[in-house]
Design a protein that fits this description.
The complex is a heterotrimer. Chain B is α/β, with parallel strands linked by helices. Helix content of chain B is 37%, strand content 25%. Chain C has one domain. The chains are: A mainly alpha, B alpha/beta, C mainly alpha.
Chain lengths: 307, 251, 337
């Protein structure tokens, strides 16, 4: 086995996992605290990517685009929460699934109206367009490395926010016992809007960082949304720690599976079959993992209720 | 007289809290056995373990001569152990009759019967109306359970429990939330059932308990501190100190 | 109000029966295949309604059973045309397998999924359908991502000709009626009472002695089998089979149809499927028309963005008309309509 390739694929897997975590963190918070299934979370990821594309084109600077995109997605998130989702908190999950499904349709069409049906591409920022030699023989694109570092920074920020600040205390209390937060006399509505906006900004951040290494297109949020759902379900709804562990796990399985399954299958079957079946098997393996975990732990690995 | 229900050395812990603490208790066949105790004494946890919704940490429960400790909820019902819920727990969008008919249906073999209409099957409807009559709800048979008064819903609870043709009833605060009039009616109904059925009664309403019970067990912090006839319990100094207090002593 | 409701349902069912005649009369044969698709989706929505509307099980993966039913036809075609296995086109066999295979898969999926509750159930049914989706993408032999165009359709000998749109239409219509009749018997039977009771209060049902898991599981299997029938028809109608139909968004569409029409009512899903596809067909034109009335510019373009109206419309239905079309016909508006 080629160790350099394995390390490289692991780094890719961690990078994907961290992006997934940024998406999943907002989703699991909203899920855990407001008990809201938000299918439209992927739309915020998409909106973040489109904002990044536009702002990069306007300012000519990816860094400035980041500075503008984060508050912009936060505002979009807060508006969506105030206009639509607020009336869904007391509804059953089916209502939430349906209404946020409607939001997906709305956002996809809105994006098509504003940005047109063709996909956009965002250039790699100049200063990150090179590659670094991490180990002898291991050359890795610095942009991907930057994604890893930036996501880790965001994850640590989130950890600090949740574990060390007053608002974080309320978020944690809300995830394990919603009534209690209300009983404390906290303005729940405002807290919810803040949490939702925060989740939206994280999703937007993920979309923004993914923009230069993927195509910015309509529907880009939908497949990644399902992955993020898998992450939070495996991790245990409401658990940020669970989301982190599960996200890295999913990122690694998906990436490493795609890279090495053809070889593994190729040793048992002919190559043509292996090339065709491996990507599908790699995609399936994530869902298989989720099914296995839920079959044995119906509430995920880390349940927020039990800590 | 044979024991209908025998609880031996039952323990249930939630984290650090011991809700049932090495509890042993036996209920004779045909007896009304009341379990009383202050809030948090572990009464509802006990009922949960008897019905199978809560799994005890250790100890055993025997019912009708067989070990039922590990059996799932529905199997215990099949053996003749029925319960009513502390918080009214009926099928809100079903009529009173349909609620009871479902309970009847549960005990007429499997329900993988796909074709015949259940709503006018006399094998279901006739017994359902009989059980409604026993609890005095026969004139409310067609009313949706959600539209029944609180007292009527409690009566419906009882009718559903009876419809499973149990040999023993576990009643979790059947008088909860009832006014004096409704409570008196419920006591009357239960008095009529007394003798035919073994009853384990968990209840806060002391008038009802002393009116119905043959024996009383006092539960405090998950332990039985005394078991005896109502008179013996009334005069037990430990019970008075721990639970009954001045109020009942005056009564 | 009841008479309006049944009058409208009867009107819809009779109108559907008359579609081919009218389409031929006005020389618009396109309508036959458009309405066949409505019937097919109506069957799929009815199957979902059994678990979702009557049983309270929010399956977010029913597109998978639709796809399985369709692939029975597709795989049969593939072997008939590539391996000369003529018998693989047998329509009766297709129909039987399109019932059995999705039914068995649904039993397997249900056996694991029904151990979970709430959101976890929604997500695990979604995960299973994604697995099947990727499984078929991986089957390059049967077209993979690109799908299979069917040059030959299910062969019913001299009985029916699937290439004849009118035959296919009446087969779909007949199957829909049969399925509606079966579902009517089913939901009112003892079995149906357990399913509906478990939706209302599962804990109570277990307390009176029902092993609810196995009843829900059988309902889930039946639902998958019925959905497979819809898949069989869909393949013959579109003369094409692909993984696109198994995408999770289509599972969402099916839920929308059920809720739009009215959950837990017999004809609700039929009304919902017809309404959904009508909206899909005519909402663009309605928007264009409305745009012209108010004198807007670029009205032709405006019509293309119909989903910008449809999305919020969906949210409105959820918030204000939960009983769906059937609920409105009964004069019930609002939350529990």
């Amino acid at each position: 086995m080629n160790w350099i390739l394995l390390i490289e694929q692991c780094l890719n897997g961690i990078q994907l996992g961290l992006l997934l975590f940024l998406l999943a963190a907002g989703l699991t918070l909203v899920f855990g605290i407001m008990d809201l299934v938000n299918l439209a979370h992927g739309s915020l990821y998409m909106v973040g990517a489109y904002f990044a594309a536009t702002f990069t084109a306007w300012t000519g600077s990816f860094v400035l685009a980041i500075v503008l995109t984060l508050p912009a997605t936060l505002i979009v998130g807060a508006v969506v929460e105030i206009v639509c989702l607020r009336s869904l908190y007391n509804r059953d999950h089916l209502d939430q699934v349906l209404a946020t499904f409607g939001l997906i349709l709305f956002f996809n069409e809105l994006v098509r109206l504003v940005w047109g049906p063709a996909g956009l591409s965002v250039p790699l920022p100049e200063f990150l367009s090179s590659s670094l030699e991490l180990l002898p023989g291991l050359i890795y694109p610095s942009y991907r490395l930057a994604i890893i570092l930036a996501s880790l920074a965001a994850a640590f920020f989130l950890y600090w926010l949740v574990a060390r600040t007053r608002i974080g205390m309320l978020i944690r209390a809300g995830a394990s016992n919603r009534e209690m937060v209300g009983a404390l006399g906290i303005n729940i509505r405002f807290l919810f809007t803040i949490v939702f906006g925060l989740g939206a900004a994280l999703a937007g951040f993920a979309g923004l960082m993914a923009a230069p290494i993927s195509t910015v297109e309509i529907g880009m949020g939908e497949n990644v949304l399902i992955l993020a759902f898998v992450v939070i379900v495996i991790g245990g709804i409401g658990s940020i720690r669970g989301a982190f562990v599960a996200a890295i796990l999913i990122g690694l399985i998906d990436t490493v599976g795609r890279a090495f399954l053809p070889d593994v299958i190729g040793t048992f079957f002919d190559d043509e079959f292996a090339d065709a079946a491996a990507p599908a098997l790699a995609s399936m393996s994530i869902y298989l993992l989720m099914v296995v975990i839920l079959a044995f732990r119906p509430e995920g690995l880390f349940s927020a209720k039990s800590g | 007289m044979a024991d209908a229900l025998t609880i031996t050395d039952l323990v249930k812990q939630f984290g650090g809290l011991t809700a049932t603490d090495h509890l042993s208790l036996s209920v004779d066949e045909g007896e009304v056995h009341a379990v009383i105790g202050p809030n948090g004494a572990g009464k509802t946890t006990l009922i949960g373990q008897l019905t199978g919704e809560i799994t005890p940490n250790s100890g055993s429960i025997r019912f009708a001569g067989r070990e039922i400790t590990g059996l799932p909820v529905h199997r215990r019902s099949m053996l003749g152990l029925a319960r009513s819920f502390q918080i009214t727990n009926v099928l809100a969008d079903f009529s009173a009759k349909a609620n009871v008919a479902l309970a009847v249906q549960a005990h007429q073999g499997h329900s993988f019967r796909f074709l015949r209409k259940a709503a006018n099957d006399p094998r279901l409807v006739d017994p359902a109306l009989e059980y409604l009559a026993i609890v005095g709800l026969d004139n409310r048979a067609e009313v949706a359970a959600a539209n029944l008064s609180h007292g009527e819903q409690r009566q419906l609870e009882l009718a559903m429990a009876l419809a499973t043709q149990p040999s023993m009833l576990l009643l979790d605060e059947p008088m909860a939330g009832m006014g004096p009039e409704d409570s008196a009616r419920m006591v009357d109904i239960l008095k009529r059932l007394k003798g035919d059925l073994t009853i384990l009664l968990v209840e806060h309403d002391m008038d009802a308990v002393f009116a119905l019970a043959d024996r009383i067990t006092v539960l405090v912090y998950g332990r039985a501190i005394a078991t005896g006839t109502p008179d013996a319990i009334r005069s037990d100094p430990e019970v008075r100190a721990a639970y009954l207090g001045e109020e009942t002593a005056d009564a | 109000m009841i008479s309006i409701r049944y009058g409208f349902i009867a009107f819809v069912m009779i109108a559907l029966a008359a579609v081919p005649t009218v389409a031929v009369a006005i020389d618009e044969p396109f309508y036959v295949s458009m309405f066949t698709r409505m019937l097919v989706m109506a069957i799929a929505a009815c199957s979902l309604n059994l678990v979702l509307g009557y049983g309270g099980m929010v399956s977010f993966g029913h597109a998978a059973y639709l796809g399985l039913g369709a692939y029975v036809v597709g795989i049969g075609f593939y072997h008939a045309s590539n391996d000369g296995m003529e018998w693989a086109l047998n329509g009766w066999m297709h129909l039987a397998l399109a019932i059995i295979i999705p039914g068995l898969v649904a039993l397997l999926v249900g056996a694991i999924s029904l151990r979970t509750r709430g959101v976890y159930f929604i997500m695990i049914t979604l995960a299973f359908s994604q697995m099947l989706y990727y499984f078929f993408i991986g089957l390059e032999r049967y077209g993979g991502d690109d799908g299979l165009s069917l040059w030959f359709l299910s062969d019913f000998g001299g009985v029916m000709d699937m290439n004849d749109d009118v035959h296919l239409y009446y087969l779909s219509y007949g199957l829909l009626l049969l399925i509606l009749f079966m579902l009517y018997r089913l939901v009112n039977s003892r079995f149906g009472m357990v399913i509906k009771g478990a939706k209302s209060n599962e804990r109570r049902l277990m307390a009176v002695g029902f092993p609810t898991y196995r009843y829900r599981l059988v309902a889930f299997g039946i639902s998958g089998a019925i959905c497979g029938v819809a898949g069989f028809l869909m393949a013959n109608q579109s003369e094409f089979v692909s993984t696109a139909e198994m995408h999770w968004v289509h599972s969402g569409d099916l839920i929308v149809m059920v809720v739009l029409g009215g959950m837990g009512t017999l004809f609700g899903p039929v009304l919902g499927a017809v309404g959904f596809l009508m909206l899909e067909q005519y909402l663009p034109e309605m928007i264009r028309g409305g745009c012209e009335v108010i004198g807007g510019n670029d009205c032709g373009v405006a019509g293309e963005y119909w989903k910008i109206v449809f999305g919020p419309l969906l949210i409105m239905i959820v918030l204000f008309a939960r009983g769906g079309i059937d609920g409105l016909l009964q004069g019930k508006v609002g939350r529990n309509g």
